[in-house]
Amino acid sequence: METPFPPFEPNGPDDSARGPRLREIPLRLVFPNLITILAICAGLTGIRLAFENRYELAVAMVLLAAFLDGIDGRVARLMKATSKFGAQMDSLADIVNFGVAPALVVYVFALDQARSLGWIAALIYAIAAGLRLARFNVMAERENKASWQSEYFVGVPAPAGAMLVLLPVYLGFLGLATDRTFAYVSSIYTVVIAFLLISRLPVWSGKSEGNRLRRDLVLPMMLGVVLYVALLMSYTWEVMVFTVAAYLISLPFGARKWRRKYGTLTIEEPGVGDDDIGRHI
Prior knowledge:
This protein is mostly helical. The relative contact order is 0.10. The termini are far apart. The protein contains 10 helices and 2 strands; from the N terminus they run ααααβαααβααα. It is globular. The chain has one domain (about 25-140, about 150-210, about 230-260): CDP-alcohol phosphotransferase transmembrane (TM) domain (Four Helix Bundle (Hemerythrin (Met), subunit A)).
């Protein structure tokens, strides 16, 4: 008959046989990951809405996903809740929100009329976004970072690429005929944006710590931001077209500034070398 009492253990209870103990995690560590999950849900919902021909809501959800994906890292840093798990979650969310979702939305809206050519263009963009994000992750993991990395991106960043590739959808909302010619032109435009993502074009990031604003320009800048948001709420698609055009026009000026400072048209320092590729595959 088994005794109801536990056996005597002279060296104390053996906790190793009980498995790992569950430890409590502070809520502040969970909150940034919840934002990332919401961003993934918004991106996937945008895809569903596009297939249901609810295009304006689809674009709004993709842009919301991009916004949430852009603030989760900042929220984590403000709350001192950064973690390797959160970084991996954010990286996986990026390919959905900045690669797959925009590609499928623009394909369903315009590129499908170009048949296989439109689908190939959407594939190229999604793959380019994945390559762009992989290169960014590899460069971010380097211990010794170049000084220019705080001021320039190598190629157009993925969030901006998602905004740019949706230009055919914005134009369609403004009444432009989405016929087969429009589909072919949109396919070419999508491929161009894909190549801008994976290019070595120096793109000014505006994150340099040396950038300071004169005191007398602070209030006009704040007023300009308020005006932009107000116009965006009232004339959403017109403002988005203007924003895309302004961003594309700014690219040569960023490259020109780089050339004056470093003497080259592109960033020649290797972003992903053979050792990086072999180590991270």
